[in-house]
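quick one before i forget lol
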Amino acid sequence: MDHEITTLTARLLAHRWLPRTDTQVKRALVDESFRVELEARLATAGLVLLDNPFAEHVAVGLADDMLDAVFGGREYQTSTMGLTRDEVALLIVIWALIVLPKRERQLGRRALSDDGQNDMFGQEKPIAYGEEVSGAISEAALMADFGSQLGGKTRIRNFALGKLARLGFIERRNGFIYEGPLLDVLLDYRTLADRIVNGTLGDVLAAAGHRLAQPDGEEETDETDAAGDGSED
């Protein structure tokens, strides 16, 4: 087991994230002793395992008590990834447009193509991941709705979206923006959902024609005890 934990730790550090379908990751999610040993190994380097049972990937991040020592001062509270205020705002908008409806479908055990009308046993399905439940947003529509508020269309298209893609928050394909491996891991649904839906951003999104469902409490899953939430802003 020690060799497998060492290997998984090295892979997490090298790749930054791994899919939940990975054999070693799946063991960490269901084998309590393996998970405890993995977390202890990461803790010796000031790291924690980041896992959200609704996300398709797991990742590693800094332990809270290491933030000041690593980043120095309090500036990191804005962003630990070098994002500007406009880029953080863009990230939150994208998160709201992709993750909020995705979570609604996951909690309802519905796929993108399912309106929930014809499935008597939908609540008995396992929670789905990937593009089965996570939709895409058009870059052109995003520019039209929010370009002027978020630094200008040229800056968003040529710089901000590319930066978010390199960091692993999004994927860009054929003019559409898809969920990246870190979008639903690093941004905490429990913290953000209510603030967005019932806050100023919810009004801005509604004015642009985007319907945001009222957030429900995330239910426990079979993996929750083993995985925990682990998300952080």
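fyi The first strand starts at residue 17 and ends at 19.
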